Amino acid sequence: MTADDLLTYAQAHGLHIIECPLPGTLCGLYDDTTRTIYLHDRLNGRQRRCTLLHELIHAHYHDGPRTGPYGAREEQRTRRLTASTLISLPEYRLAEQIYDGDVYRMACELDVTVQVLRDYQALLVEQPAAMTAQRAYA
């Protein structure tokens, strides 16, 4: 899934994408009232792809600005879906073998950020049965 694929999806669903400076360490954010995704204008290609998908998932669920436990659950769901969408188990296993578990090099190979890779690794730990079943069909 390329950044262009994601942009096409966004346009097809009536979402607006604006690239601009964002405060602090924000890479992106979604405003459901205007159906607008804001991406930091200094993201590299890998960061842009991961952030765009992350914000598209927020858009899909019509997530709004929330704090506390509900907001944390939305963010956790979004991070898990981002990781499981961008990384397949066979690709992960191959990268893990080639790079001997080196997280940065694996992330580069898989064209994701280190954070997305770590989120995927957390899924492997949290849901080993689901990942084993996925592995059996790969």
The total number of structural domains is: 2
Taking Cα atoms only, what radius of gyration do you get, to the nearest Å? 16 Å
Shape: globular
Mean pLDDT: 91
CA-CA gap between termini: 18 Å
Structural class: mainly alpha
SSE run? HEEEHHHHHH
Helix % is 55-70%
In CATH, what is the class of the largest domain?
A: Alpha Beta
How many distinct beta strands?
3
In CATH terms, the superfamily of the largest domain is Metalloproteases ("zincins"), catalytic domain
CATH architectural designation of the largest domain: 2-Layer Sandwich
Number of helices: 7
Described by strand count, sense and barrel closure, the largest sheet is: 3 strands, mixed
- Beta-sheet strand percentage? 5-15%
InterPro entries: IrrE_HExxH
Protein name: IrrE N-terminal-like domain-containing protein
Domain IrrE N-terminal-like: 10-117
Organism: Bifidobacterium pseudolongum subsp. globosum
